[in-house]
Predict the structure.
Amino acid sequence: MAAMVALRALRWRLLSGPRAARRRLSDFPVPEEKPQFPGASAEFADRLEFIQPNVISGIPVYRVMDRQGHVLSPDQDPQLPQEAVLKLYRTMTLLNTMDRILYESQRQGRISFYMTNYGEEGTHVGSAAALDASDLVFGQYREAGVLMYRGYPLDLFMAQCYGNASDTAKGRQMPVHYGCRERHFVTISSPLATQIPQAVGAAYAIKRSDGNRAVICYFGEGAASEGDAHAGFNFAATLECPIVFFCRNNGYAISTPTSEQYRGDGIAARGPGYGLLSIRVDGNDVFAVYNATREARRRAVAENQPVLIEAMTYRIGHHSTSDDSSAYRSVDEVNYWDKQDHPISRLRHYMVNRGWWDEEQEKGWRKSSRKMVMEAFEEAERKPKPSPQLLFSDVYRELPPHLRRQRAALERHLQLYGEHYPLEHFEK
Amino acid sequence: ALQISRGLWKKYGDKRVIDTPISEMGFAGIAVGAAMAGLRPVCEFMTFNFSMQAIDQVINSAAKTCYMSAGSIAVPIVFRGPNGASAGVAAQHSQCFAAWYGHCPGLKVVSPWSSEDSKGLLKASIRDDNPVVMLENELLYGVPFEMSEQAQSKDFIVPIGKAKIEREGTHVTLVSHSRPVGHCLEAAAVLAKEGVECEVVNLRTIRPMDIETVEASVVKTNHLVTVEGGWPQFGVGAEICARIMEGPAFNYLDAPAVRVTGADVPMPYAKILEDNCIPQVKDIIFAVKKTLNI
């Protein structure tokens, strides 16, 4: 300590003494004044100071509209044409209607399980509209609106939930675990956050083959706590992948509120730690989600770098049909978001303000969308289940001999004793 | 990357050979994702002990996805690396995972012994459209083997799901995989001097297991001893014995089948203890003599 004081004093004398005019130490860059560590490049600090995590006034929330659908800064309005905006609105409301009916059908014992998207419809359609149709989507389980925006038909949504013979997944998954190769939507997988490093790997593969395609990876703020998320973010940055990470921060992971999920400034604040471009947006503002996703995608592809978007929103429904959220949150809280800050209402206000929508169209659309959903629903109920033969396929790419034998044994068994089984409910 | 990919980076560069941050769940995950998006990745675990940190990606994602997506998503990936006991690396670096991975439908699991096995099975695994786990052995990396002209040719493949008779015999069938195959052959050489001719079957593939080759051998010799480095409970030997009982070969057994396995303890570090925790040639000889009642 004393030595340092002496050294400083010496430098001061050298710098300001009679020789100072001829030669200053600062004229000669001295290597030991800048850290040379391979692990980080920064200046030295000679005061002991901890970095205080900023949670009171953290990363701001980007928005375009206020809660009444008024655009705050006109230059931020993406100027989407009327048809495009109507598509956003119709997709969100159709999803909402389908959710209501399928949730009820679970309550009535018609399907085994369901998850609604109430309150988060804006995050789905805003981001889906900003992507190219061929961009690869890895979801968690609450992104059905993305698939709906891409044109996945109602009867296939229902077929998957009912596990009937029209289900492209052959009845193998729990409801809402949709997948569609043609629409570039990877099959939903239950374990949380496993899709994050997979999305990065896919982005890496895509980078090698196609310079114009991006990957988007959706996950909740709870899944972001998984180790897979940490690994995925880090790898995306080190491998320079064209990927958009889209975090739906909806306030709850089943019953765990964000105050117990993390102590930092949400998920967006973690991005810079990994070297990711990061932004926080109002997830209930479709245009904010659209603008952020569009720019994120553009940069991810142009610069081969990952971008992190944290969309703040609120999960209005229960986690799933296996959850009753009144056990851990107040009805008032839920009502606030449902009535005062809902993506569907906000977009409707915008459309009404522009003269693109009115009460009559709203009534008409509610009626026709409900009719579409009910028709698909009744159709799905009527259809048979997949054939028992499908029990054995797709374990491997090719049917192995031992499963072939078992399938043949089942067939023989059913030929003899089929009348004891409810075969009429299954496709042949 | 340890020794196996040495030279590959120089030849193929950064795009084909990738060093990643240290996270098994991370790099197994990105490899699975890359396979889903159309590449044919080879994912190396420094040892399969660390694959436990990625086990969800291997089982829930790689193994089950073809089935759960009803065939629309293929995962043509190879997970490879050293498996089982090495020398003086203690419990967390010495476990054998043949039974763990062999348990799961959706995976194929191979376990080479010789150089020809290693080359042929790796090629076959990469070319296979299913997820394959290739369980190599660190101590075998340094052991030279004779290789035939055919085995040295460019497209030499060892088919997955076929066992190989390494030594023909008439008195007892020894079934093994990986390094213990060598021990079986040594035991067979010793026993031959006493007039006992052992037939040594190298499984080569754990899943799908070529039980037909084992059955044919048992029908011929009437005695069965399984040898493996892994723990006894729920192991490869247990599966072989169960299948023999379920099949035609049961009627040809003149004595109960016997398993020679690793000791049912976490691998100790002290050399004298470690040596006695894995099957040695003398243990195989003892088991054969007990089975043959000599």
